[in-house]
Amino acid sequence: MNQTFSLIVTNDPGVLLRVCGAFARRGYNITSLTLKERDTTGSSQIEIAAVCTEGEAVLLVRQLNKLIDVWQVKKL
Asked: Of 6, 24, 31, 54, which has the fewest CB atoms closer than 10 Å, so is most exposed?
C-alpha cells in the first residue's frame, strides 16, 4: 500500500541522502519524491511516497523524527 510522508528539513547538503537512507535501510521502495525550498530561509519540504503497510509507516515516522535535520514529519 502506498503511504505519503511530508517532511520539513534543514536545507543542508546530505539531508536528502540521510532521509532516503532511512527508507532504504528498512527495504521500502520510494515511488515518488518531491523536494522544494520553502519561503523561510534554511528549510526545505520533502514529500515522499513509499510502499509500506500502516504499521510500518508509523515506525518509519518515529525513526524519521529521530534524525537531527528533520524538524517535522507528517503522514498524509
From this structure: 54
Give residue limits of the domains in the chain.
Answer: 2-75
pTM value is: 0.88
Contacts of 40 (CB under 8 A, 6+ apart): none
pLDDT tens per residue across span 6-45: 999 999 999 999 999 999 998 999 999 999 998 877 899 9
Does the domain spanning 2-75 belong to CATH 3.30.70.260?
A: yes
DSSP code at position 26:
T
Q: In DSSP terms, which residues pair with 45 in a beta bridge?
A: 8, 36
Residues contacting residue 49 through CB under 8 Å, at least 6 positions apart: 2, 3, 4, 5, 30, 31, 32, 33
Assign 58 to helix, strand or coil.
Answer: helix
Nearest to 69 by CA among 20, 3, 4, 34: 20
